[in-house]
Structure formats: C-alpha cells, structure tokens
C-alpha cells in the first residue's frame, strides 16, 4: 500500500477507545455490541493475468480474480485493505496469514474489542462470527421474524456487519474501472484497487454531499446489488475446522443480553 492509500486507509481512532456512534445511538446494538470496532470481509475483483497464472487466480465466478481482504468502520470507511491474493485462496487462509504477519500492519483489536466477521472466517479472539447452520443474512429474514435466540443473535450480527457489504457495494458501483481493470501488471492492478478504496474514504470524509452515500444513508438496510453475500461453502468448512473457542463466551453473553432486552421490551408493552 503506498502514498495516499497508506495515509487514508486506516482507523480514525487507532486505539479504538470510543464506542462508535452508530452503536451508541441504536438500541438494537447498544449495549450488546458496545465492544465492536468494525467488520471484516473479502470481495473478488476481476484481474488480468498471464495465461499460465489464470488457473490459480480463478475464483468462484470462474474468471481470474483477486481476493481482497478489507476492514471497515460503521461510517462505511475502509480502515484496512489488502489486495493481491489469488481468487482461489480461501477467505480463512488470507485472514489468518494477515493477522499473524506483523509486516502487513493489520489494525488488530485491543483486548476486549472485536471485529464482526461472517461464517467464512474462523472465530479467533477479537473476531466474532455468527452461529453456524442458522439463518444469517438479512434477506433470509424478510417477511419472517427470527426464531430462537441463535437467529436473534445472527440477525443483529448480520445487520451490524452489513456496513462492509454496503462499503463494497458503493465502491464497485462508483469505480467502473474495477469491473474491467486495464492490462497493467498485477502489482499495478492491485494498486488501482487500493487507490479506489482510498478515494472512497476521501469522498466519504469530505463535506460535499455525494449521491451514492446519500442513497445508502437514507436506507440502513440497503445493500447495493454489486455485492455477493453468500460465503463459499469450502471457505465455511475450512473456517469451522480452524475455529477456536475464545469468542464463544462473548457470543453467548451478547445472545443473553439480546434476549433479556427483548423480554424487558415485552414486559413494558404489557404493562
């Protein structure tokens, strides 16, 4: 990551001391997710590579892609972007390599804080995933309320984590160059991807009203159609194999808190 990208693709609160306003001011998430600092996810972007490299870059879409790992905050600002992994690489493998390689400078959560990640990622301390084999994506709950405590947790987790899907959606809708990258070297194509993310942040931070952000800010449930939300089944299986239990108590405590909040709300309505 160079120049503008390095300077602007980073957390505004690098020590993560403050609770994000999007959590503080929303009873769906406060106090349950008060220690959450953002979300992580990966997205595939088509890339042009030599014929001998096409097989290892071929992603789930069947075309050569680069698998981009990103983190964002709840204001839809990218706080980290890593572009360069082949499209055939699993999200879980990219994630584990990134958080274990200090030279990649991933903004790790401090003790007690965590990112949200979907079921394609292994659960590690500081990274909270949903319950497996349980409805998760917001589209699955349209017209059907969650049943049971696990679905209640998953819906809240999915709703809060949608910030990364929304950020990716705006990014791809705005920068048409990401749909057809020029025939530059893979290194330069990855630089274009990072530069696009940096410009996304620059526009978001400016005081000039932007049509793309205006549309998405008006509807907190809107996810641009550019985003593919279903995790690859192989990635999910790999993530489950690699998961550990550090965050199980955190997830269970949040689930209990959500259930207590629902019961309290029902009691107030009855009285």
Quick overview:
With 271 residues, the protein is of the alpha/beta class.
Describe the structure using short key phrases:
5 strands; 5-stranded mixed beta sheet; 9 helices; 271 residues; alpha/beta; 41% helix
Commentary on this structure:
It is found in: Nucleus. InterPro entries: HARBI1-like, HARBI1_dom. The protein has one domain (3-262). The chain has nine helices and five strands; from the N terminus they run ααβαββαββααααα. The protein has helices spanning 3-8, 21-24, 54-57, 91-100, 148-174, 186-205, 211-218, 233-242, 248-270, and strands at residues 36-46, 65-72, 78-86, 114-116, 127-128. It has a five-stranded mixed beta sheet with strand order 3-2-1-4-5, with helices on both faces.
Q: Reading side by side through the largest sheet, how are the strands ordered?
A: 3-2-1-4-5
Total domains: 1
Helix and strand composition category: alpha/beta
User: What's the order of the H and E elements?
Assistant: HHEHEEHEEHHHHH
Q: How much helix, percentage-wise, in residues?
A: 40-55%
Main β-sheet description: 5 strands, mixed
Mean pLDDT score: 90
Oligomer: single chain
- Structure annotation, total helices: 9
Q: Count the E strands.
A: 5
User: How many whole angstroms does the radius of gyration measure?
Assistant: 19 Å
Beta fraction of the residues?
5-15%
Distance between the termini: 57 Å
Q: Uncertain regions: pLDDT < 50 for 5+ in a row? A: none
Described by the principal axes of the CA atoms, the overall outline is globular
């Amino acid at each position: 990551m160079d120049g503008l990208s390095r300077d602007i693709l980073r957390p505004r609160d690098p020590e993560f001391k403050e609770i994000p306003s999007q959590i503080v001011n929303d009873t769906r998430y406060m106090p349950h997710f008060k220690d959450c600092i953002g979300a992580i996810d990966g997205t595939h972007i088509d890339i042009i590579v030599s014929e001998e490299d096409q097989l290892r870059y071929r992603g789930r879409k069947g075309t050569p892609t680069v698998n981009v790992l990103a983190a964002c905050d709840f204001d839809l600002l990218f706080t980290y972007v890593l572009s360069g992994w082949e499209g055939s690489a699993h999200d879980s493998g990219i994630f584990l390599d990134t958080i274990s390689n200090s030279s990649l400078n991933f903004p790790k959560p401090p003790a007690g804080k965590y990112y949200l990640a979907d079921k394609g990622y292994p659960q590690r301390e500081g990274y909270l995933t949903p319950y497996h084999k349980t409805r998760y994506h917001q589209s699955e709950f349209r017209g059907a309320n969650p049943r049971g405590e696990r679905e209640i947790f998953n819906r809240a987790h999915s709703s809060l984590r949608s910030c990364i899907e929304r950020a990716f959606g705006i990014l791809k809708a705005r920068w048409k160059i990401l749909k057809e990258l020029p025939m530059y070297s893979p290194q330069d194509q990855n630089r274009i991807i990072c530069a696009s993310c940096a410009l996304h942040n620059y526009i978001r931070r400016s005081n000039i009203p932007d049509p793309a952000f205006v549309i998405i800010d008006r509807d907190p449930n809107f996810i641009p159609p550019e985003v593919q939300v279903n995790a690859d089944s192989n990635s999910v299986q790999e993530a489950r194999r690699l998961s550990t239990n550090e965050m199980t108590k955190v997830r269970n405590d949040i689930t209990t808190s959500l259930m207590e909040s629902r019961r309290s709300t029902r009691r107030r309505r009855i009285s």
